[in-house]
Amino acid sequence: MGGDVTMSLTRRELLVAAGGAAAAQITIPAVLRAGSAFGVGADPATANRNRLVVNYPFVNGVKTGHSFEAGFNFLGSVERQGRRVVLVIAGAPTEPGRAAAARKLAQWSFEAWDGRAFLEPGSSVGTARVQGGAARQVQLGVPRRFALAVSHGSSAKVSGTIEYLGPLRAPLAKGEQVARLTVHLEGQPDHELPLVTLEAVGAAGPIDRIIGGLLGLLE
């Protein structure tokens, strides 16, 4: 990036960005895994400075970087046996040190943590009230599959809270993001997941509005 433009991102922001890229099923072509990490003896067009991509077959990217202030950094996505982990390395003193730290962290993440199935798209996790619609509520679910990372052998309890600004106003399209699910996992920080409508809700007709108004008075 040229000029006087600077950019500062936290580790969490980098993880969120990489998670989005990982969800898009990014893969690394085999040609980019061949040859030296520094391009010695390789076509410069396919040279890859990411030692982990070259030497660790489970890695699918994402980005390496270096600056005098931040040291050698790595934002990576690692997938093994159908489970994907996103990791960040910051402040490594050398390029080999960055690769070694990233590999160690990746191995630890698979050995010390288990993936637990959590939510599937199309499955309802709750409802939201609807105003002015042909239906008075709408089913909510996640837009894609989500799993939980729990320490190996853990039986931590999981709960969730649905939050939205409501009641929602009709019409609503199927798949419209309207709420969020705050997941409370024992021993870990809360996590927020998007919630979308699982069905469309059209605007209420005259009779539906009258019935809705009467029911509203009884609540």
Number of helices: 4
Give me the CATH superfamily of the largest domain.
DD-peptidase/beta-lactamase superfamily
Strand order of the largest sheet: 8-10-11-6-5-9
Question: Which CATH first-tier class of the largest domain would you pick?
Answer: Alpha Beta
How would a crystallographer describe the biggest sheet? 6 strands, mixed
Order of helices and strands: HHEEEHEEEEEEEEH
User: What does the radius of gyration come to?
Assistant: 23 Å
Shape verdict: elongated
Q: Level of helix content?
A: 10-25%
Mean pLDDT: 77
In short:
It contains four helices and eleven strands. The chain is α+β, with helices and mostly antiparallel strands and 219 residues long.
Characterization of this structure:
Helix content is 22%, strand content 35%. The chain folds into 2 domains: 11-113, 3-Layer(aba) Sandwich (Beta-lactamase); 120-218, D-Ala-D-Ala carboxypeptidase, C-terminal domain (Peptidoglycan synthesis regulatory factor (PBP3), Domain 2). The model is unreliable at 1-5 and 24-42 (pLDDT under 50). It contains 4 helices and 11 strands, in the order H-H-E-E-E-H-E-E-E-E-E-E-E-E-H.
